[in-house]
Amino acid sequence: MADPSIRLRPVVENDLAMFRRFAIEPGLIGLDWAGFRDAQAPARRFAIDGYLGPDDGRLMVEVEQERVAAGFVSWHAGSYGATAKHWEVGIALLPEWRGRGIGWRAQAMLCDYLFTHTPVQRIQAGTHPENVAEQKSLEKAGFQLEGVVRACEFRAGQWRDGYLYSRLRDDPSPL
Asked: What per-residue string of b and e applies to 12-36 under the rule 16 or more CB within 10 Å gives b?
């Protein structure tokens, strides 16, 4: 089966049902499940800025042919020192859309979007050592593994290591 064509688009009100699902359905988000969250928080955030804030945001990953949202990509600001701002990106796809070539393309598209519309030099992403599919996806999206971040996440009752990846403005886009 050919990879479906995708596009990134702003969040609309109908997308909030998906965000509520990620907040209240254990396991839907995979290893990133961190317990139940406020199911009304997505609507409150959407009312503020439509998930397009100055320091963070979300875009929907839409399968063009079916005009259906497969998930979303997100970003939030970080910095090294006083002036070296960067973006940290993430992705959440519904289970039925995983493993179909959507994730790496959506993450590459998000990087291209952020490099086009913001002056950052660096975009980074973290993942779990056991999430081999996401590691491959990040590498295909143009990210390079930088190393292990020790005890960076509290998940499933214990502190766990993570892998840190980055893509720089001068790195070639895989798209």
From this structure: eeebbebbbebbeeeeebeeeeeee
